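Aim 2 progress update. The chain analyzed this quarter is reproduced below.
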Amino acid sequence: MVEVVAALIWDKDRFMICQRPAHKARGLLWEFVGGKVEPGETKEQALVRECREELAVTLNVGDVFMDVTHEYPDLTVHLTLFHAAIREGVPQKLEHNDIRWITVSEIGQYEFCPADEVILERLKQMRKDG
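Predicted C-alpha cells:
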C-alpha cells in the first residue's frame, strides 16, 4: 500500500484542485495537490515538501479532513487529506497541467481521480448540512 497525502486548501468558498499531467497515470484527471510520503517523513512533512515541489508554495498543515483507501488496478493508495492553508507564495504549475479554484457546486464539472470521489461526496454533504 502506498501512503499518499493531499491538501484541502480553501480560499473563501473555493478550494484548489490540480489537473494531473497527461503523461502520468490517471493523466488529465483532477485531484487535490499532494503526493507520496517518503521514508522517514511524517505525513505533514511530505505534504509541505510536495506542495513546495509542485506549486512553489509553503503550507500550514492543519487537521486531517479524511482518510481514504482506494484500490486502483495498478496500486492501492492510503490517502490522508489534510486541511491546509498557503502561508507563503502563489501557486504555480510546476508539475500540473492546470490549477483551478472551484466551489463545491462546481465539482460535477470536473473528472476526478477515483480515490477522491468519496471526499468530494463528503464536501457536497457538508455543504447541504450547512
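The CA atoms of residues 23 and 112 lie 16 Å apart. Helices lie at 43-55, 117-129. These observations will guide the mutagenesis experiments scheduled for the next reporting period.
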